[in-house]
Amino acid sequence: MNKPEKFTSHGIAASDMDAEKLATYPTTAFLSRDYLEAEKARLWPKVWQMVEREEDLPNPGDWMTYNVADESIIVLRKDDGSLKAFHNVCPHRGRQLVSVPDMLPGKVHDVRGNQRKSFVCGFHGWTFNQDGENTYILDPQDWHNKLTPEMTCLSEVKVDTWGGFIYISMDPDAAPLKQWMGRAGEILEAHELSKMRYKWRQWAIYPCNWKTAIEAFLEPYHVAGTHTQLLAYGDYYAYSKQFGLHAVSGYDVREADYKTETSGGTTRSGKAGLDPRVSTYELIRENYETVNYSASTETLVKAASRLKDELPEDATPGEVIAHWIASAKKDDAARGVIWPEIPEDVQKESGLAWGLFPNQNILHGATYALCYRVRPYGDDPSKCVFESYALERFPEGEEPETEWVYAEPTAENWGAVLEQDFANMEFVQKGMKSSGFRGPLPNPHQEQKVINLHRNLAEYIGEGAPTLLDIE
Ligand code: FES
Ligand SMILES: [Fe+2]
């Protein structure tokens, strides 16, 4: 990376980020094929990764494949109701046990099925039960009866659940998932993600590195420059804070005098100086409608629309928010959607959205979440599999039926706001290749999640660590 002479670099620690020191990181992580190979060797086989929502594999025998880089994993719901996961490879001569074509736009997202009692390899017929044990080999005597169960079983993968998601780790020595999620997991779980269900789910093959894509959703610093229409009713100043592997961002105010403890998430009042009864409604309506009807709910938007009729003209922003939340909560309760009681200490820390290492982003609320996951696509560092989905708490029995829908990155498919994000991502990927780019200058207050991603990636990859900028 080209750096101006006056920058001298030092390594960066979590405490440096807490102190909001200036930092940069190399662009190798986005551009280099060697780095992509290093991710295959040292990142993906070592980290806990979200596979799918639990409700997608509800019954004994339900199974699916999860694919990332060169790895393919089979996840199965066994007859006893527990989950089991294996590398999708036959121990005989290495055929994929289940054939998984490359993800194909509009055609293949993953491979899944039901009522599976055993897996039979299509090449020579070796067979495996739900525990991955080998139950059939043609002519085992030809190996002089020396094949042992350990040599002929499937390679097991760790599987666990959190927040209604199925996770896997290919690392036999992986720390428990709960420990991996840490405080971020506790805070998000207080929002009862496990009781939410898909509202919609979409994916695309997109022309940028997977990190370029996830970073486009890690920080609200870009809102003023990218989503200018959103500024009419709200300010998007944000803090960000590392939580070890994971990191959070939340709405903030530039002047300390105006700070309130409840302003971190989407249920906030509109801009100072406007009638909060109106601006709160306009802000949430605009967000909801232009982010593909997510990051809030119909209940919240409707309750906000009544604020002007239900509250006096001189209601303060604090009173407006309290009334709005209370009436939405009541409306939801009447239709059988009971909000979680979120402890105050959790509320204070919970912010607007979490970057979950390495490749997820969850923007959460009491009854909804807008989520992103990005994976590499093939061996091209300039391509990714981009996924976004909305979760919501529905009255029992009213959960919509959804499946992964391939959607070209247009405003029509994804909403006006995501289309604006898409309009940057491809050109960030291109711009970073410029010989005139001296390296990123992330905002130490607002874009700490991005710095934290690179700090943690470097722990796995062994290169690419952010460095401090000492400007003389
Ligand atoms: S490769 Fe699977 S049985 Fe031969
Ligand atoms: Fe955006």
Description:
This protein starts with 6 loop residues before the first strand and ends with a strand. Mean pLDDT is 93; it is low at 1-7. It has 2 domains: 1-44 and 183-472, Naphthalene 1,2-dioxygenase Alpha Subunit, Chain A, domain 1 (Alpha-Beta Complex), CATH 3.90.380; 49-173, 3-layer Sandwich (Rieske Iron-sulfur Protein), CATH 2.102.10. Helices cover 28% and strands 23% of the residues. Helix 5 (177-189) packs across helix 12 (344-350), helix 8 (276-290) runs antiparallel to helix 9 and helix 9 packs across helix 11 (317-334). An 8-stranded mixed sheet has the order 14-15-16-17-18-19-13-20, sandwiched between helices. With 472 residues, the protein is an alpha+beta fold. It binds FE2/S2 (inorganic) cluster and fe (ii) ion (FE2). FE2/S2 (inorganic) cluster is lined by residues 90, 92-93, 95, 121, 123-126.
* Annotated CATH topology of the largest domain: Naphthalene 1,2-dioxygenase Alpha Subunit, Chain A, domain 1
Task: Tally the structural domains.
Answer: 2
Whole-number mean pLDDT: 93
Which structural class should the secondary elements be placed in? alpha+beta
